[in-house]
Every structure is written in C-alpha cells, then in structure tokens.
C-alpha cells in the first residue's frame, strides 16, 4: 500500500473543495426563520457612552430587535480572564468603548441590508477621552487609564530568574544590549467570521454554528459568560473553514453576542463579518517591545541573557491571552545552550483592538529580537553570524535537553540541519560574491535564523502568568489531551470522527492514512468526519486547531483509537482461532497467525461477529466496533513552584538562510533565494507538510515586509482596508527551497512533531538579518518591522545625513 503514514497521497478534502461542494458556515441553513445581524461599532478609541437612542431603528422595515450594552449586562457575565487583575470584558461595550470598532449595538432584521440601514439610524452620544496606543507610553504613571477599577494599564507582570544570571553578567567579557519593536499584524483568511445562533427558551439552550476552531478552553469561557451549564452551549463547526491562521479562535465574543441577540429577538440570528470589520476588530497578534542584554565572552560564548518583553494586548486582555507572552516561555532561549536567563514579562492594555492567537503566536515576537541579537553580537565580536550561531547551538548528544525555564526538547540535531541550510544556500560562495557586489555599489545580504518550533502546547503554560501562590489557589493546569473515535459498521465501512477542527491543513487525509496503516485497509475506504459538535464529539478543553498540535497530539489520538479497534478485532480472532493475540496480525482483509498463515479468518466475519452475533464474543467483551481514545503526554506537567514549565511536548527545529538585494535609492528589498530546513520528526505526509511550510512562510513574509495594523495617536486605524493593509501575493513569495531531516520524537507513537508555524516565526528575523547584512556599508541596525521600502529608505537617508554632518 502506498497510502500509509509517511507517503504523499492526494488530499481527500480537495475533491469537494475543487468542485465547489465545500460546506462553509455561510452555506448552512440549520434553523428555520433565520434573521440577520449588523453591528454598530465605535468610531472612538476611548470614550464614555452617555446615551444610545435606537427608537428610529426599531420602527424601520424588517427590524425585530436592537441589542445594547444593557442587554449584555442582563444576560451575561464578564468573560473569565487568565490573569489576577479583575478586568471586565463583555461581548459588547456596556458603558465605555476602548478601541475603534468595539461593538456598541446590534440590529436584528429580516435581512442584512435592512439591518445595515437600521444601524445607521441609531444615535449614540459619546464623551471622548484621551487615548493611548504606544506600549511604553501606556505604562507611564500619567497615561490615560483604560480600566478605572484597575487603576493601571498593566494587566499582568511577572519576573523570572533561572540559573545564576547575575554571576554570568559579572564574569562576562562584555554586555551587549538593544531594544527591538515588533508590529501588530493579523491574518486575512478567505472566509471571515461567521455565526448562526439559536436560543431555545424552554431548555435555556444556546445552539451555535460558527467557523470557530478552538482551543475549546474557550467553550468554558463562553458558557461562563452566558451563565449556563456547559452542556447548554452546543457549539457546531462545519467541516470546511476558509482559513484562519489562528484568528478564528478570537471570535468567541461574537458567538456569545449573537447568542444573546437570538435570545432577545426570539429568532435564530446569522452574522457574517465583512473585511473592514475583520481588520478593524477581529483579532491579531500582539505588538511587542523587547529589551535584551546578553552576557558574552570574546570567543562568542553567550553566558546569559536578560529580557524584558512587553506585549500590547489592546483594549482588553481576553482569553486565551496572555498566551502570546507565555507560549514560548519554555523555549525563550531558542536553540542555544545558554544556561542563565532573567525575564520580565508585561501585558499592557492600550486603545487598540484586542489580541489573541495567530499562527506562530508568541514565536515571531520572540525570535525577531533573539535572532537579530545573535547577528548583532556577531558583528560586535567581528565574527561571522554562522560561526556564532553554530558555536552556541545545543549539541546533538544533549537531547533530551532541559532549558533553564523548564522546556524539555525531545530530540534533534541542530548542527546538521544548520549545515544543510548553509550548504544548500551556498553560504560561503555568497559571501565572496557579496564582497565584490559591495565594491560595485550593489547591496547584497545574507541572513540566517535557527529556531526551535514548539508544538502540542501544555495547557498549563499560560498559568505561569500567575504567581506560585496564586496557582495554588486553583486546580493545577497541565496536559495536551485530544480525542478521536474510530468505528467499523456492520458492513465493514470505517469511519473516523476527529475534534481537531481543521481549517485547511489536511487533517482528514492524514487521519485516513493513519487508520489505513493500522487496520491495513485502503485510505480511500476510510471516511473521516471533521465537523465539530460539542454534544457528540470526543473532545476536551485542549481540543482544537492551534499550536501545531495535530501531528504530535491529534494524530496520536487517532492512532490510539485505531489501535483499540485493531486489538478488539484480534481479540475476537484469538477467541475464534485459538491463536494467542500477540501472534496475530491483519493482512489482506484477514486476521492471520504470523507463524502459521493457514490459521486465518476474514475481517468481515470478525466484524459481523461484533455486530450480529455478540454471544460469540470473548467473555466480557462489549458488542460493536466503536472506540474512542484520548491522548496526552506526561511531559506536559503543571508549572513547578520555581516557575519552570515544559510549555509544549515536542520541539522541532528550523534553519533558514535568505539572500537579498536592497536598492538604496528606493529602499526596495528583493529576496533572491530562501532556503529552509525543517526537522519535525517523522513526516506524516510530506506534500502536506511542504504546503504548510509554504503557508507559514507567506504569513511570516507578510509580517516581515508588508503587514501592519497601524494606528495614529488617537487610536484610529490607518490600515483598515487592503488599500493600506498590504498582504504578500503569489508574485511576492520568493524562490523557496525546502529540505527536511527527521529525528523522530520519542514521546509520540508515530514520532511526529508539529510543523507549519516555524517559518511564521523565523521569516521576520531571517529577512531582517539579511537586510541588515546587505546594508552593512551604511552601518544600519534593523530593529523594527515591517521592512517597507519607505522605512528602509529613511534609515539610509538618516545615515547619509549623519555622514555628511560628520564630514562637515
């Protein structure tokens, strides 16, 4: 069979998607008499709501209800948050707006057009307040305060000390310091948010279809806000989601909002987000300011690092934040054998839109300053960056390797992957070409990045935002559980039900491959059901599509469920053949004794026995072939009292080498070549893996060169359409060479690790390193993004002015 694990079979999802038969949330008509919602949004970044007058809107044709903050206060509670500060965040503004685009009212009407017309008729009286959007300004004592009950804009602040950093800094030959700024940017999925909500008053039951994709920790957050038991909030997700890159986990406030709208209006309510709403108010990654001090010896050995990382979480800190600040806590020092680390972490609120999960969340914010700092250190020491990186990489014989902050890297050979990347990019040859180019006024540059890619996040990592004493007051959080069910019906057809809520990654294909191998059936005979239904699916709070968790966790749950079915079939065969279970295997549709193949029985008969003749089953065995499994890894433990935590269960590695040319007259950057080498353990489907790498790289490229949710000083969004919010298209994606090495994880049954977020994390850093290298003759330091032509041109002009001034 060629459709087993590790082979590149065609995606089973593509047949329906390419033929127009995909099932998206906007295609659904799950309820009768569905009405439509439109949202009135705040034009102010910071203002008190004095009065809302919806009388005219309520008299308009087709309008059945208008929802305001008073209704939200009546029917919901504030969303639970993951920090100790009592921040009141609702699905709609109740007395004050804190970012442009915050919902202020909802109109429910017979169609969207009528609802939009009625939105324009609502009159809101605001009292404008001073706004703050800059991270450092928001932390000042005299900054405008967003939440008066808190009295500060700091939502979370912690300090950590691992190893003996003070001693390392005392003994180092030098200390190198710099500050870096990472921008706020989002994702632009083909399909925006969509919600269809219904409320059954006799059962106090909310039933919601949406393209929400998890994590399903947010199910408990939503049910708590709605003040109903969890089993009275039924979430349903169609099998097709038109992309997400993480931001569709941030739609949970709209699920609650539309649920309340359906309750008050007495009709099912549908809302579909438009593109302007998506950029204005959906979700995004955090912008971050990072200060780094590195204790360095003259030979290039890095003894320790001190980091202060401040994330801007927007107008409210909302679940699962401060995830972006702590997701990479365990791998803060990346791929380097640095033994000492001090960290200060701060989440600050400003008058920007709230943040949340986005592909690579926390990783791009970490690796941009870390990998830029490695190049900066090399320059200060007059070393080649590749030499410095290789010198400080964790050696291959050190695995499993424990980081100072508690991460346990399961396997890897970082030096080998880096060498492959350098050789493939012809690093040394390019260096020679570069010297000749500089002499001719051509600015060529080469950059590299070596990063660790965490996957399968431990549910407990975000609780390091709390002090050990605060954590002791609640149930410890740990684990990374995922569930799956494998069934065989009376006619022998195999069905798999997954709860990983795919958004285009190919989960159905890989699930079919896994079950195909375990049960020795053709993959195209396996039916995979990807719709999510919290009332019927095997799921846990960790379920969903985030943190690259399908390969290490989701696939393992599928594998275990399939193994349960296989073992049950072989136990039935043992009972009927009289051959020990351990000596039986499945081959060519039959259970066969390995040492005497004359002893065999068809799977058809074994399946028939389980369904049609249960009295012939082994004593104590239940009828049927329907097995569920939940998989987790014991390495995902709750944080320790010393604040160490293994925040993910598997850790891959990515080595990137990029070459560029910069035009000093325009500031334009041309990426000449992009080499990326990945070690994600055992590849489950190489073609799908490469597709995920390309998608992650495109997203990282956007953050490096094009995308930014830019605001003016009053909190007005300046990039609220594709005229101003630039995204890379196919023509901007450079030449890409993808290489793989496989060091299987010893922790997962298939040896797989997560893959797909790595280049989102590495691309901003490696491109910035390449551009900085190209501009070496100008002595320019790239410490902010995106690398737009005007920004680079201004840096060059500033350097020219300095040179002219010095000569004068």
The gist of it:
By secondary structure, the protein is an alpha+beta fold. Helices cover 29% and strands 24% of the residues. It folds into three domains: 188 residues, Aldehyde Oxidoreductase, domain 3, CATH 3.90.1170; 242 residues, Aldehyde oxidase/xanthine dehydrogenase, molybdopterin binding domain (Aldehyde Oxidoreductase, domain 4, 2-Layer Sandwich); 150 residues, 2-Layer Sandwich (Aldehyde Oxidoreductase, domain 4).
CATH H-level name of the largest domain... which superfamily?
A: Aldehyde oxidase/xanthine dehydrogenase, molybdopterin binding domain
Query: What's the CATH topology label of the largest domain?
Result: Aldehyde Oxidoreductase, domain 4
CATH architecture of the largest domain: 2-Layer Sandwich
Shape: globular
**If you compute it from the alpha carbons, what radius of gyration comes out, rounded to the nearest whole angstrom?**
28 Å
Could you characterize what this model shows?
- The protein is α+β, with helices and mostly antiparallel strands and 808 residues long.
- It folds into three domains: 31-129 and 190-243 and 247-281, Aldehyde oxidase/xanthine dehydrogenase, a/b hammerhead (Aldehyde Oxidoreductase, domain 3), CATH 3.90.1170; 382-459 and 644-807, Aldehyde Oxidoreductase, domain 4 (2-Layer Sandwich); 482-631, Aldehyde oxidase/xanthine dehydrogenase, molybdopterin binding domain (Aldehyde Oxidoreductase, domain 4, 2-Layer Sandwich), CATH 3.30.365.
- Helix content is 29%, strand content 24%.
- The chain is built from 21 helices and 29 strands.
- The strands form seven sheets. An eight-stranded mixed β-sheet has the order 3-5-1-12-9-10-11-22, with helices on both faces.
- Strand 28 (669-679), helix 19 (686-705) and strand 29 (736-740) form a beta-alpha-beta unit.
- Helix 7 packs parallel to helix 8 and helix 11 (363-380) runs parallel beside helix 20.
- The longest helix is centred in the C-terminal third of the chain and has 28 residues, at 550-577.
- The radius of gyration is 28 Å and the shape is globular.
- 57% of the residues are buried.
- The mean pLDDT is 96.
């Amino acid at each position: 069979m060629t459709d087993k694990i590790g082979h590149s079979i065609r995606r089973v999802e593509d047949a329906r998607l390419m033929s127009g038969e995909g099932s998206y949330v906007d295609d659904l008509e799950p309820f009768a008499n569905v009405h439509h919602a439109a949202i009135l949004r705040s034009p102010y970044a910071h203002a008190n709501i004095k009065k809302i007058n919806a009388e005219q809107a309520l008299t308009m044709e087709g309008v059945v209800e208008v929802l305001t903050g008073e209704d939200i206060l009546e029917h919901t509670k504030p969303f639970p948050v993951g920090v100790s500060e009592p921040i009141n965040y609702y699905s709609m503004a109740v007395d004050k707006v804190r970012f442009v685009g915050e919902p202020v009212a909802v109109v429910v009407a017979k169609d969207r057009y009528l609802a939009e017309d009625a939105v324009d008729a609502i009159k809101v009286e605001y009292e404008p307040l001073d706004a703050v959007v800059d991270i450092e300004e928001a932390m000042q004592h005299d900054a405008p305060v967003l939440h008066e009950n808190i009295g500060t804009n700091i939502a979370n602040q912690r300090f950590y000390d691992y190893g003996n950093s003070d001693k390392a800094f005392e003994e180092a030959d030098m200390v190198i310091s710099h500050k870096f700024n990472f921008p706020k940017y989002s994702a632009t999925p083909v399909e925006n948010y969509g919600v269809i909500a219904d409320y059954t008053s006799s059962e106090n039951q909310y039933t919601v279809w949406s393209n929400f994709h998890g994590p399903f920790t947010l199910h408990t957050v939503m049910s708590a806000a709605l003040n109903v038991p969890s089993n009275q909030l039924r979430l349903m997700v169609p099998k097709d989601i038109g992309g997400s890159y993480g931001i569709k986990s941030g739609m949970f406030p709209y699920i609650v909002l539309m649920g309340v709208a359906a309750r008050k209006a007495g009709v099912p309510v549908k809302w579909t987000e438009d593109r302007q709403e998506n950029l204005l108010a959906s979700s995004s990654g955090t912008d971050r300011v990072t200060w780094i001090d590195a204790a360095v010896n003259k030979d290039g050995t890095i003894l320790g690092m001190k980091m202060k990382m401040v994330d801007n979480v927007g107008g409210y800190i909302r679940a699962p934040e401060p995830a972006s600040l702590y997701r990479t806590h365990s791998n803060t020092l990346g791929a380097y054998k640095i033994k000492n680390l001090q960290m200060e972490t701060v989440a600050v609120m400003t008058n920007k839109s709230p943040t949340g999960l986005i592909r690579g969340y926390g990783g791009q914010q970490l690796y941009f300053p870390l990998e830029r700092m490695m190049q900066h250190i090399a320059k200060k020491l007059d070393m080649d960056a590749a030499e410095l990186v290789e010198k400080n990489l964790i050696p291959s014989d050190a695995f499993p390797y424990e980081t100072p902050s508690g991460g346990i890297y399961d396997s890897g050979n970082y030096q080998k992957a880096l060498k492959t990347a350098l050789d493939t990019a012809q690093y040394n040859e390019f260096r020679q070409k570069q010297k000749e180019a500089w002499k001719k006024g051509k600015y060529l540059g080469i950059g590299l990045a070596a990063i660790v890619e965490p996957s399968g996040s431990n549910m407990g990592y975000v609780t390091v935002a709390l002090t050990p004493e605060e954590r002791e007051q609640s149930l410890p959080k740990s684990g990374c559980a995922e569930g799956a069910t494998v069934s065989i019906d009376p006619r022998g057809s195999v069905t798999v039900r997954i709860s990983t809520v795919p958004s285009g990654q190919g989960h159905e294909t890989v699930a079919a491959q896994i079950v195909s191998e375990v049960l020795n059936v053709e993959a195209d005979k396996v039916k995979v059901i990807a719709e999510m239904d919290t009332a019927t699916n095997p799921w846990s709070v960790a379920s969903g599509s985030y943190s690259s968790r399908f390969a290490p966790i989701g696939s393992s749950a599928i594998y275990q469920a399939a193994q349960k079915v296989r073992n049950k079939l072989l136990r039935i065969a043992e009972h009927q053949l009289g051959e020990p279970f351990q000596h039986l295997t499945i081959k060519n549709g039959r259970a066969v004794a390995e040492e005497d193949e004359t002893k065999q029985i068809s799977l058809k008969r074994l399946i028939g026995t389980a369904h049609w003749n249960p009295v012939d089953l082994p004593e104590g065995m239940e009828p049927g072939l329907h097995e569920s499994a939940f998989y987790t890894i014991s390495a995902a433990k709750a944080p320790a009292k010393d604040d160490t935590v293994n925040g993910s269960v598997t850790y891959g590695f990515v080595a990137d080498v990029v070459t560029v040319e910069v035009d000093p007259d325009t500031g334009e950057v041309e990426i000449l070549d992009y080499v990326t080498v990945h070690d994600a353990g055992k590849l489950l489907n190489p073609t799908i893996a490469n597709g995920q790498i390309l998608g992650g790289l495109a997203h990282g490229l956007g953050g490096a060169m094009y995308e930014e949710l830019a605001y003016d000083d009053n909190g007005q969004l300046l990039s609220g359409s594709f005229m101003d919010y630039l995204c890379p298209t196919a023509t901007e994606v450079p030449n890409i060479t993808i290489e793989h090495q496989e060091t299987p994880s010893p922790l997962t049954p298939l040896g797989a690790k997560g893959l797909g977020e790595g280049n989102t994390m590495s691309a901003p850093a490696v491109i910035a390193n390449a551009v900085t290298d190209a501009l070496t003759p100008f002595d320019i330091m790239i410490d902010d993004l995106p690398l737009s032509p005007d920004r680079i041109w201004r840096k060059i002009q500033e350097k020219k002015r300095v040179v002219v001034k010095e000569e004068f």
